[in-house]
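Much of the work behind modern protein science is quiet bookkeeping, done one molecule at a time. The protein below has been through that process, and both of its lines are reproduced in full.
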Amino acid sequence: MKIGITGATGFVGSHLVRHLSSQGHNIVAYGRSKPAENLLKFADFRLWDITRPILERCEADIFIHCAGFVDTWGRYRDMYDLNVMGTKRALEFAEGAEHFIYMSTASVYNPWYGKHLATEDSLYPEKYANNYGATKAQAERMVKDFSNKYRKVTILRPHVIYGPGDRHIVPRILKFAERGKEFVIGDGTNEFSITHVGNICYAVSLLLAAKLEMFRIFNVTDDKTLTVNELLKRLCLAFDLHPRVYNVPYLAAYGIAVLFETQNRIFSHKKTPLFTRDIVRQFSQESTLSIEKIKRDLHYDPPYDFNNGIQDIKLWVDSIGGRKEYISNPNEKVWQGKLFTY
């Protein structure tokens, strides 16, 4: 099949390009930045800023939309342009495709309370804690509105995606650990779902083979949850880091996050602060998703977990020059070093 993939120069998109190419599909990769030489070994590449119309005609059988503003810190206008209007452009462009797959996020669930095995039929909250969740929810509604124009439309909701090429979670944890300190909000026993990027690739392959019609939403995560304590301990050990762990009460952590954010705004830093209120909320409460629906409908049996995920991350980080090189600029590394294909 011919498959179009946006966000091919990003984390999830790069893995889908390699995964689906290895299965014999003809891949057309879209990205708004110049492609790495390695990408061109797996796909034809088209330069496309998804906030603008594209003039060429889409001839893909399957279209997977991964591009977007993937951060909880940023201006509403920037996120709206990429996550909402960019999705609208992708939906209009891919209208001739048989199946449209939208890579969403668990951030569309209610952010104000802990999530215990949240299901896909949960209602959208009236208000979101950040612009990322708000704009991704708007994009989901738009995808649903367009669903009558496609034979199949699927929304995938992963949570805390990790693996080789991760640009957010792992480098942030390692940056704190490099300084000899890790901060745990509360006692660190709260559980949360995580998603190995290989399990996303696996879920997409199941979708392509399935006979499902119409519009569907699936949570996609690893089979097992982790506590914050387990995540920090196992990741730091893999990189031979032994930071001192400080347990910080929720209110104190929230206040520290406000200081980090204020400093960032005063000095006009465009990068996400190392510590934000969203991080405090996310890592201080239970945040687990139910994957019973995808198991039932697609026979989803995730092959990857945190154990092999850590091993692969370590191998990949070593292949791009080591921990310090990774932490210094994680955004430019997804097509460098050892290229994992799940």
